[in-house]
Design brief:
The protein is mainly alpha-helical and 55 residues long. The chain is built from 1 helix and no strands. InterPro entries: ATP8_metazoa, ATPase_protein_8.
Length: 55
């Protein structure tokens, strides 16, 4: 069964993860967001209890 032979597939997986973590990921993390999050004051909403008609 060739699926169980890890010889070619392990190298492909290792090379792809190294490519992603060393080349692609730093390029993706260097982008600046177009809409950065701001520190807005959180507003508290007043909730009213639900009146059940059958109680």
């Amino acid at each position: 069964m060739p699926q169980l032979n890890p010889n070619p597939w392990f190298f492909i997986m290792l090379a792809s993860w190294l490519t992603f973590s060393l080349i692609i990921q730093p390029k993706l993390l260097s982008f600046t967001y177009t809409n950065p999050p701001s520190n807005k004051a959180s507003t508290t909403t007043k909730t009213t209890p639900w009146t059940w008609p059958w109680t």
